[in-house]
Amino acid sequence: MAIWSLGSVADFVYTIIENVPTNLSGTTLLTIADQKRQFVQDWTGVTIGSTSIDIKYQGIISKLTASEVANLMLTLGVDASDVKLGDFSISKNKGSNLSEVAENLKNSAMQDLQTLGTSMPFYKALG
Known about the structure:
Blueprint: H1 6-16, H2 27-44, H3 55-75, E1 82-85, E2 88-91, H4 97-116
Protein backbone atom coordinates (compact mmCIF):
# COMPACT_ATOMS: atom_id res chain seq x y z
CA MET A 1 0.00 0.00 0.00
CA ALA A 2 1.16 3.49 -0.78
CA ILE A 3 0.50 6.78 0.95
CA TRP A 4 -3.24 7.51 0.83
CA SER A 5 -5.31 10.67 0.71
CA LEU A 6 -8.87 11.25 1.90
CA GLY A 7 -10.00 10.35 -1.63
CA SER A 8 -8.32 6.95 -1.24
CA VAL A 9 -10.24 6.41 2.01
CA ALA A 10 -13.49 7.33 0.21
CA ASP A 11 -12.71 4.88 -2.61
CA PHE A 12 -12.08 2.14 -0.05
CA VAL A 13 -15.39 2.86 1.69
CA TYR A 14 -17.22 2.60 -1.66
CA THR A 15 -15.74 -0.86 -2.17
CA ILE A 16 -16.74 -2.26 1.23
CA ILE A 17 -20.14 -0.58 1.70
CA GLU A 18 -22.70 -1.30 -1.00
CA ASN A 19 -25.19 1.24 -2.27
CA VAL A 20 -23.85 4.32 -0.51
CA PRO A 21 -26.59 6.93 -1.07
CA THR A 22 -25.71 9.97 -3.17
CA ASN A 23 -26.32 12.30 -0.23
CA LEU A 24 -23.48 10.55 1.65
CA SER A 25 -21.08 10.44 -1.29
CA GLY A 26 -18.71 13.04 -2.68
CA THR A 27 -17.95 15.96 -0.40
CA THR A 28 -19.95 14.53 2.50
CA LEU A 29 -17.92 11.31 2.48
CA LEU A 30 -14.67 13.25 2.27
CA THR A 31 -15.79 15.36 5.25
CA ILE A 32 -16.55 12.22 7.27
CA ALA A 33 -13.13 10.78 6.33
CA ASP A 34 -11.45 14.03 7.38
CA GLN A 35 -13.26 14.01 10.72
CA LYS A 36 -12.06 10.44 11.35
CA ARG A 37 -8.51 11.41 10.28
CA GLN A 38 -8.63 14.23 12.83
CA PHE A 39 -9.92 11.81 15.51
CA VAL A 40 -7.01 9.41 14.87
CA GLN A 41 -4.57 12.32 14.82
CA ASP A 42 -5.87 13.58 18.16
CA TRP A 43 -5.83 10.07 19.65
CA THR A 44 -2.26 9.28 18.59
CA GLY A 45 -0.76 12.74 18.90
CA VAL A 46 0.85 12.26 15.48
CA THR A 47 0.21 14.70 12.63
CA ILE A 48 -1.65 12.93 9.80
CA GLY A 49 -2.06 14.95 6.63
CA SER A 50 -5.18 14.74 4.50
CA THR A 51 -3.04 13.93 1.45
CA SER A 52 -0.41 11.82 3.19
CA ILE A 53 -2.04 9.14 5.34
CA ASP A 54 0.62 6.67 6.42
CA ILE A 55 -0.02 2.95 5.95
CA LYS A 56 -0.38 2.26 9.68
CA TYR A 57 -3.33 4.68 9.92
CA GLN A 58 -5.08 3.83 6.64
CA GLY A 59 -7.01 0.83 7.94
CA ILE A 60 -8.12 2.58 11.11
CA ILE A 61 -9.33 5.72 9.33
CA SER A 62 -11.03 3.62 6.64
CA LYS A 63 -12.86 1.43 9.18
CA LEU A 64 -13.98 4.42 11.25
CA THR A 65 -15.22 6.20 8.10
CA ALA A 66 -17.05 3.11 6.84
CA SER A 67 -18.62 2.61 10.27
CA GLU A 68 -19.88 6.20 10.30
CA VAL A 69 -21.26 5.88 6.75
CA ALA A 70 -23.08 2.65 7.68
CA ASN A 71 -24.54 4.33 10.78
CA LEU A 72 -25.69 7.31 8.75
CA MET A 73 -27.26 4.99 6.16
CA LEU A 74 -29.44 3.62 8.95
CA THR A 75 -31.00 7.05 9.42
CA LEU A 76 -31.88 7.47 5.75
CA GLY A 77 -35.12 6.32 4.19
CA VAL A 78 -38.02 4.84 6.15
CA ASP A 79 -38.12 5.89 9.78
CA ALA A 80 -39.11 2.48 11.10
CA SER A 81 -37.36 -0.53 12.51
CA ASP A 82 -39.44 -3.08 10.61
CA VAL A 83 -41.47 -2.73 7.41
CA LYS A 84 -43.77 -5.54 6.24
CA LEU A 85 -45.77 -5.93 3.05
CA GLY A 86 -47.32 -9.38 2.98
CA ASP A 87 -44.52 -11.93 3.18
CA PHE A 88 -41.92 -9.29 2.34
CA SER A 89 -40.22 -7.56 5.27
CA ILE A 90 -37.26 -5.24 5.76
CA SER A 91 -35.60 -4.59 9.09
CA LYS A 92 -33.59 -1.46 9.84
CA ASN A 93 -31.65 0.02 12.70
CA LYS A 94 -30.49 -2.07 15.65
CA GLY A 95 -29.97 -5.69 14.74
CA SER A 96 -29.92 -5.10 10.98
CA ASN A 97 -27.04 -6.08 8.74
CA LEU A 98 -25.91 -2.49 8.44
CA SER A 99 -25.85 -1.84 12.17
CA GLU A 100 -23.84 -5.01 12.79
CA VAL A 101 -21.30 -4.03 10.14
CA ALA A 102 -21.04 -0.50 11.57
CA GLU A 103 -20.49 -1.80 15.10
CA ASN A 104 -17.93 -4.42 14.03
CA LEU A 105 -15.94 -1.92 11.95
CA LYS A 106 -15.89 0.59 14.79
CA ASN A 107 -14.80 -2.03 17.35
CA SER A 108 -12.06 -3.28 15.04
CA ALA A 109 -10.77 0.24 14.40
CA MET A 110 -10.76 1.12 18.10
CA GLN A 111 -8.82 -2.07 18.90
CA ASP A 112 -6.28 -1.10 16.24
CA LEU A 113 -6.03 2.39 17.75
CA GLN A 114 -5.47 1.02 21.23
CA THR A 115 -2.71 -1.19 19.84
CA LEU A 116 -0.99 1.89 18.40
CA GLY A 117 -1.33 3.66 21.72
CA THR A 118 -1.33 7.37 22.40
CA SER A 119 1.42 9.90 22.54
CA MET A 120 1.97 11.31 26.01
CA PRO A 121 4.56 14.07 26.17
CA PHE A 122 6.54 14.18 29.39
CA TYR A 123 9.73 15.63 30.77
CA LYS A 124 12.09 14.83 33.57
CA ALA A 125 12.42 17.64 36.08
CA LEU A 126 15.70 18.02 37.95
CA GLY A 127 17.15 14.63 38.11
